[in-house]
Amino acid sequence: MSPHAHTIPLTDEQYQCAVTDSSQHIRLARFLGKVQNKESITYGSIGGSITAGAHALPDQSYAPLLGQWLNGQTPTQFINAGIGASNSLFGTFRVAKDLLCHQPDLITIEFAVNDANNPNIEPAFEALIRQCLDSPAMPLVILIFTMRRDGHNVQHIHMPIGKHYDVPMLSYRDALYPLITEGKLTWEDLSPDEVHPNDAGHAYIFQLLQRYLQTTVDPETASLNIPDLPAFLDAHASQHVGQVLDATQLKCIRNTGWQQGPHKGGYTGWQTDKVGAKITLQFTGKLAYIGYKKYAGDFGQVQVTLDDNPVSILDGFYEKPIIQEWAGGHTVIEPLAADMPNQTHTLTLELLRQTHPDSRGHAFDLGYLLVS
Fold first, then answer.
1. Cα–Cα distance between 84 and 202 in angstroms, integer?
2. What is the pLDDT of residue 58?
3. pTM score of the predicted model
4. Which of 71, 118, 143, 128 is nearest to 242 (CA)?
5. What is the count of structural domains for the chain?
6. Residue (of 364, 282, 296) closest to 324 by Cα position
């Protein structure tokens, strides 16, 4: 077993490689003041499967470790809003319901791997950060950049947004990937698969966060006013604040052959496997994305019609890359329409007879719409 299998010490040099600090410490000073005064605080994390704790022992992933450490200093409520195989596009539409309603004092955001599958990274990630910074408790917001086996992530896209909003950023990738390329660590020291940290990897992320939260700041800084948020960096970011509408919230106008049933993440979807099954739903908004299950197996295709205009065919079959062993799939989110009149719209899905050549059936699972 590698000597690094259980702990990887964080050196000063590695920390300096990892951290991009905020130029103003008002939020940090306010948060540390609450901790030092033993006030009750709330820590909330949002991200993908890494934040949810995949492949780590229970309570040994970075977010609960940080929650436990904080609770040792002051009464701390911990909210883990991590959902596997999700990106910041889904995150920005669900953050109000899943996290901000708890009025957190500290928020960590982790989407540097999963945002590679985000069709609109910049406006979604900016809208997510902005909502977090603007929430009632005026929380300290910290960005975390994890990585894949090959060192890839999208921090080069996230970092300019983080700098625009002057939030601290911690790059697990920048701290550890050089050690892998130099042969001082192996990927297997950090992860059992292509992306998810093991307990040692999570402990390292926790050390980065712990070290940042031990930054020395002048307590008087806490009395300063927090600056107003800057202008939007991306013109489309303001449209990416909305809500997730599943089958329990979408008005059904007509339905032949579709049934409601559980979808991933606690949402209720509409499902069918009957060729010709047709459903018409109603929603109100000016921008919409559609989330549906894309899995290997018995999955088919639907014709999507918006306001009586055919817009696309969605294929529920997931074609596994040759280099990838795992043959499952995800709920994928694709653009439906933007810049629509802000009024009521109708969405119709009809299950087609045609399928992907490798599919064995016609099942289709509509999860939700993201609407603003």
1. 16
2. 87
3. 0.95
4. 128
5. 2
6. 296
